[in-house]
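Model the whole thing, not chain by chain.
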Amino acid sequence: MSVIPLALPDRRALIREASVASRRRRTVAGLVAASLSVVALLVALVPIVWIIVYTISQGIAAWSVDFFTKLPHPAGIPGGGIANALVGSLIIDGLAALMALPVGILAALFLAEFSGRLAGTVRFVMDVAAGLPAITIGLFAYAVIVVPQHHFSAFSASVALGVLMLPIVIRAGEGALRTVPNDLWEAGLALGVRRARVARSIVIPTAIPGLVTASLLAISRAVGEAAPLLFTAIGSQVFSTSVGGAMASLPLVVYQNGIQAYPDLQQNAWGTALTLLVLVVVLNVSARLLARRMRRHAR
Amino acid sequence: MSQLPMIALRPNEMATLAAETQPEPQPAMQVRGLGVRFGSKLVLSDVDMSFPTGRITALIGPSGCGKTTFLRSLNRMHDTTPGAVVIGTVLLGDTDIYSSDIEATQVRARIGMVFQRANPFPTLSIYDNVVSGLRFNGIRKRAILDEAAEGALRAAALWDSVEHKLRTSAMRLSGGEQQRLCIARALAIEPDVLLMDEPTSALDPIATMRIEALLRKLCERVSIIIVTHNMQQAARVSDYCGFLMVDDARVGHLIETGPTVSIFSKPRDSRTEDYVTGRIG
Ligand SMILES: Nc1ncnc2c1ncn2[C@@H]1O[C@H](COP(=O)(O)OP(=O)(O)OP(=O)(O)O)[C@@H](O)[C@H]1O
Ligand SMILES: [Mg+2]
């Protein structure tokens, strides 16, 4: 194809004209696209805002000092609280975090540092595990801990929740550790310091904000899960701090009271759901705030 | 700043004197038949060079000729790069640093390194940065650490400006101060040799000048090997010079080495001459 070259002024005019026309076209297309995305955004927000508003409006009526400090009442007797479930959740989730976070962070360090085939496999397995149904994990804990021991236990629930936390903390932790500049590794190694010491004293401290965020995200995911607790902690009407036995917990209260016909119990379910909502929001927001503050501090 | 010697090619007079009137000192380090490849890609081949004790040796050459690669083979930094292979002999005194009974950590504790970009540890204070090499290698005695910190900071010409704020974060220092902090950190473990990879390329002329002035004093206690892009800098600070360049197969070679004065005033190789006169590179 032969092209007859245009004189420079003509070429300039042609290009300017084309660009003006295309700008006009782009403005119209841009407006349409922008309004469509705004509509889509609103549609997506509706159910989320609805859930939040509905939970608040239903749950707030249950909230009182007694609600947080009393034990549950038997069905039919009004009032009663969730003190045992609050403490139970704290113990179960705390123990789960205690088991999962150190392991998860070390695994994250491994993934961030090594890029061999093993790391690739682990990363793939963790991605799959992140999508594992919570109920499956619960069933697993039931099979390997509850059944051999012949009794339900808070410990088995912690194991299930710990397994649930692992992939989250590993992948988010890996991301946090990867943001540590390679310069710092090299600076440490160049001083004749061993790898493990560089990791412990330099790399992990530098990544702390991200690791804390990763941990809080994992905890906040686990806090609201009921499925892994159904056949592990099983729930309890009494106050218990023994991890070897059955224990109450917030998601179980929501589930067990929510399906009852008694309005009092239902109201307590909503009150507990609101408590969980607040907990998760607080965990998420503090994760973010903490990360930001520590990062600023580190500079 | 009329005497800011950024343009004039004026080899350091002290250095000139040293190189011309004194015999070349015993080598602090020597390499023989050194080659480096990454995977199957040969980057540096057949390098023989020696680095005199208590002197500053500069490595110069066009971008990509393998200066950084060469420098990192001198303290076994390539051990951390998967696929990197170093062949040949690298002697520190008369120990082969690649011999199988020597650990990389031992080598690096005796051969310090300063990087192109200042890299202080962001979570540590100024003091903790300086003593990190000692502390992380197991030295805990407060008195020893204090003494090492002051000594190293003085040697890096930083003591007077940080003495009153040793506990503050290292990240509050200016770029030039951070780089001097990194020099202090490397000096605190009392290395025999200090490797520097374009240590001033991210700094302004004044900070650069400070560091150059510092180097002249430092070479009394440590032999310095410095990579630089800046020929004026090589001429100003170094006693000896090695010029590297790639061949047609993009493999780096050491073209010429010798006292800085001769490299700049009467190079033996025409490629060296082209480079130092600014015709290539
Ligand atoms: N880790 C690596 N893997 C593969 N190739 C590498 C690696 N490091 C360096 N190289 C290659 O080796 C050659 C020399 O690189 P090197 O960084 O040593 O050059 P240089 O002389 O320091 O350049 P500059 O002046 O730009 O810093 C380049 O072609 C580079 O692409
Ligand atoms: Mg380089």
